[in-house]
Amino acid sequence: MKPVQPWPPSPFARGQGGLGYAVPAALGAAVAWPGDRVVTVSGDGGFGYAIGELATQAQHGLRTINLVLNNGTLAWLATCQR
Ligand SMILES: Cc1ncc(C[n+]2csc(CCOP(=O)(O)OP(=O)(O)O)c2C)c(N)n1
Ligand SMILES: [Mg+2]
Question: Is the CB of 22 under 6 A from ligand 1?
Answer without folding.
Answer: no
